[in-house]
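Hi there. Long-time user, first ticket. I'm pasting a complex I've been working with (about 866 residues overall). I'd like to know whether the download I got is complete or cut off, because the file seemed smaller than I expected. Thanks.
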Amino acid sequence: MSLDADEVREIAHLARLAVDDADTGHHARNLSEILAFVDRLSGVDTAGIEPLAHPLEMTQRLRSDQVTEVDQRDRFQAIAPATEGGYYTVPRVIE
Amino acid sequence: MQWEAVIGLELHAQLATSTKIFSAASTAYGADPNTQACAVDLGMPGVLPVLNERAVRYAIRLGLALDAEVAGRSVFARKNYFYPDLPKGYQISQYEIPVVGRGHLDIDLEDGSKKRIGVTRAHLEEDAGKSIHDGPGTLTRIDLNRAGTPLLEIVSEPDLRSAREAVAYMKKMHSLVRYLGVCDGNMQEGSFRCDANVSVRPVGQLAFGTRAELKNLNSFRFVERAINFEIQRQIELIEDGGTVIQETRLYDPIVARRAPCVARKRPTITATSRIRTCCRWRSPRR
Amino acid sequence: MHDRTIAELGVGLAQGEYSSVELTRAVLEAIERAESLNAFITVTPDIALGQAEAADAARARGEAGPLTGVPIAHKDIFCTDGVRTSCGSRMLDRFVAPYDAFVVERMRAAGAVMVGKTNMDEFAMGSSNETSWYGPVKNPWDVTTVPGGSSGGSAAAVAARLVPGATGTDTGGSIRQPAALTGTSGLKPTYGRVSRYGMIAFASSLDQAGPMATDARDLAIMLSAMAGFDPRDSTCVDHPVPDYAAALEQTNLAGLRVGLPREYFEADGVDGGVSRAIESAIEVLREAGAEVREISLPNTELAVPVYYVIAPAEASSNLSRFDGVRYGHRCEEPVDLEDLYKRSRGEGFGEEVKRRIMVGTYALSAGYYDAYYLKAQQVRRLIRDDFSRAFEEVDVIAAPTAPSTAFALGAKADDPVQMYLSDIFTIAVNLAGLPALSIPAGFSGSRPVGLQLIGRHFDEERLLSVAHGYQQRTDWHTRRPGGEG
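Hi, the file is complete. Here it is re-exported in full:
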């Protein structure tokens, strides 16, 4: 599977990663190599095989519906890049 | 030309649990911003989701009331996209194997007859936080108190044929979830929300027309008005030679009409990707 | 005094030969002298001395366990309350964690003294500890070579005898491979044995925390402290935690059925010196009475491609939370939301992390999900089933940990696929969720070689016991760089 610079830009966008135009070629090559390498899997016969998401196929433990978390806003917001009046802030999003 | 409207509703019911679906923070309404957002809700590094048993029970309770298939084994998946009120950069939801499968709800039509509306599925997912765009200055403010609140997304089959039927279905579901105690149904507070998928087709045609998705319908009146408006809009558009495009339309109750909106929190098709969380649960019924 | 094992230090402390405070001071000094190894990102002298004092006081009250007052280090992937937790990344360079990871809580509860946070490959992605924002770690055996990764800092710190034990994490070999390259012992427990709460996630279905030390006894002591039930991690199991150290003598090597996977031993690209050392190690097991036989893990060669779909896919999703909004690096003066995301993440993440995020994003995107991620998960089941079948015939699987010894810094920098292939013997274990360890088994030239032992799910007692048996018959684990063993 060979990727070109446009596809790299598209993937970088989906992943919200800034990639310099100068680097897209390099990334395209790297990614193409990796994808070519993993392409081996396409030849494997996996008809009827259930995907394995959890190595031990455990089921989920359920938690009882009791409030145990307390307000830790000050603590958590002490490490935040930008807050105001208890809110997190980002540049205005135009919808 | 005789037209027929085809409508499906996606209802989001916030489950009336004390805590979030994946964390033990409170879901009480009206708290100061970010005072009910714990490390898990904030998507801090290294923390993990732990599923709320009551949320599962409530989902199953509704499933039983809808005479639906309840999955013995259900799986969570992640919907990956970026938005500031989605702290982890993904929403934990259900894709392939939802907790509740096919069921139905019977509604009463105006002529006294009953109509069976199919329910395709109902699945558990977490709510996002709130983004406030129109405060002072040039910032968007984010409150993550709501992030992680359990939602049950109830998807109907496209069996509804008029705005009236849609409202009847929505009202009945609203009564049902309140009666069952799984949701308080408070639409002002956002506990019960509706998205409508609306399309039109010539009477007799089997194929569906292209549908538009209407969002932000938070009262029965708005639902009826918005759907009627949309049906009319589509018919006029087609009769004028245009084509309906698949898009999300946001209802503006103040202007009482809708304007198309840029796809906002919902990802575009190309950006939707899914990854299974490595966890399953067994229905307590088994 | 500090370059002893945890077990030995426990005795020394109990007998009053030295106090924990004296011991901790000596460790802190040694760390300072060895700064050029770059094994530590953050050293925590005040916390350490405070914990050491508390440990001495506890001992005076008669409340001491095997780890009380023993200095250890934590890989900088574990959140430590009030202390920077960087994950080797600029993205978290100023992230001071607001809570402790389960592993950190448990080690503290056991009385261990935290001297600092060790260097690691950025977000645990790497096999050489060269991708860290804080610069590469040097292998104490030869400082022009890598210590392995991603737990390179922990491995180097233990190998250089700066600390007797350190915590690490292993997603595709990140405890075992650096243990092999640095002549130390490292264990990846069964998936679910140790809680992942507070351990910054790389690939959620593969990650596991584990101990790194110089010998099996110390691994056992640490594992008993690290393991345990935690309701905050719903993938961790509620099995009782054995006293692993007490169980060390339980497995007789005589009659032990040891399997050698044909595909591992026939693989291309294994150093001659590594092969020879491993053969000698197997011979030691044979002489002790083990029944060594060949087994087959037919899907071996698919393990690396499967891993390099699943791990990046899960990582791309797990790293989406690093967006400059609530914590971590944010770019200067973002003009809009997109700019905030792209520049914060573009500046915060290094090359290898970006590469893996992009591979993962691609594999999960519409149109490719079935061909890549789903397919990889199906082949994952085949790989796991290979092991299940093998364990019907044998009790333990033995193999090299890595195909080569420590390579030169910079040698594989621009060849990601080459770097990925060095994980070839360790990766399948994570896919199957099995426990495995690496112990020193000799040298190739002057570079350490590691022997890997793989066990059934939750069979850490047997694994540690076999490793201990081997270490009673050999002395590779006592060798240290620049010193006599």
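A couple of notes from our side: Chain A has a mean pLDDT of 92. Chain A is about 35% helix and 10% strand.
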